[in-house]
């Protein structure tokens, strides 16, 4: 388990958490309980009653849904520093998606009563409104992409998002994305074969390098051009 100073520094790498007042940051971390998951275990399932507000301390969590035919759609992957789960706490409705551990995971869980107490702090309440708006914007962007963008543009835009931590929207870019083509295809709602053909073409144009279990970004400029349809 990380010492408090290390934990605070790690979580503050997330822009949303870093923008909170120091006393609110401390209250969130000190009053939360630790929950650990092994790979494949569920943090929550679609239809679950509202529970905790979560902060991801270690590992990665997959947010997904299953269709009537059993086909899985991956909506996003939460990485270290992300806070989530506010929607059901705000509207009192059941959880909308499954959330399971991709790797070994550790989360901080803020219980509903503690979340309500934090919401009495105007700064925290405004931050939750901003977090909800950020999550909503991402959903609308994905919906817009699925309806209006070409397959290549959708792939390039999602890789660009993943380079910034997907939901984290980090200012720092990374060039090695530890994601399988199967998972990326499920994120985009396309077949593995369609994705493979597009990635091969993008690699031929020098935008990406394909490795086992990875997509490496060779040129972010070329990737962004593809994401813009250029």
From TrEMBL:
Which CDD domains did the record assign? CAP_ED (cd00038)
Alphabetized SUPFAM superfamilies for the sequence: cAMP-binding domain-like, Winged helix' DNA-binding domain
Stretches assigned to coiled coil: none
Keywords for the protein's UniProt record, in alphabetical order: DNA-binding, Transcription, Transcription regulation
Q: Report any Pfam family annotated for this entry.
A: HTH_Crp_2
Ranges of residues in domain Cyclic nucleotide-binding: 16-119
**UniProt entry tagged with the keyword Transcription regulation:** yes
Q: Which PANTHER family match?
A: CRP FAMILY TRANSCRIPTIONAL REGULATORY PROTEIN (PTHR24567), HTH-TYPE TRANSCRIPTIONAL REGULATOR ARCR (PTHR24567:SF74)
Name this polypeptide is given: Crp/Fnr family transcriptional regulator
Organism listed in the record: Pseudomonas germanica
Taxonomy-wise, where does this protein's organism fall, top ranks first?
Bacteria, Pseudomonadati, Pseudomonadota, Gammaproteobacteria, Pseudomonadales
């Amino acid at each position: 388990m990380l010492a408090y100073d290390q934990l605070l520094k790690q979580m503050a790498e997330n822009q949303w958490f870093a923008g909170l007042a120091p006393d609110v940051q401390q209250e969130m971390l000190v009053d939360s309980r630790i929950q650990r998951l092994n790979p494949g275990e569920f943090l929550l399932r679609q239809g679950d009653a509202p529970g905790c507000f979560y902060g991801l301390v270690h590992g990665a969590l997959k947010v997904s849904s299953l269709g009537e035919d059993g086909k899985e759609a991956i909506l996003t992957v939460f990485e270290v520093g992300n806070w989530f789960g506010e929607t059901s706490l705000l509207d009192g409705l059941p959880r909308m998606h499954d959330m399971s551990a991709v790797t070994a995971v550790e989360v901080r869980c803020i219980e509903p009563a503690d979340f309500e107490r934090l919401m009495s702090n105007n700064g925290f309440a405004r931050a939750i409104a901003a977090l909800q708006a950020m999550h909503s914007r991402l959903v609308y962007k994905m919906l817009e992409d699925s309806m209006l963008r070409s397959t290549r543009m959708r792939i390039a835009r999602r890789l660009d998002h993943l380079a910034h931590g997907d939901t984290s929207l980090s200012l720092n870019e990374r060039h090695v994305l530890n994601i399988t083509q199967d998972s990326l295809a499920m994120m985009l709602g396309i077949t593995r074969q369609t994705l493979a053909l597009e990635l091969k073409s993008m690699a031929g144009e020098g935008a990406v390098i394909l490795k086992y279990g990875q997509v490496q970004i060779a040129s972010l400029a070329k990737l962004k051009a593809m994401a813009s349809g250029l």
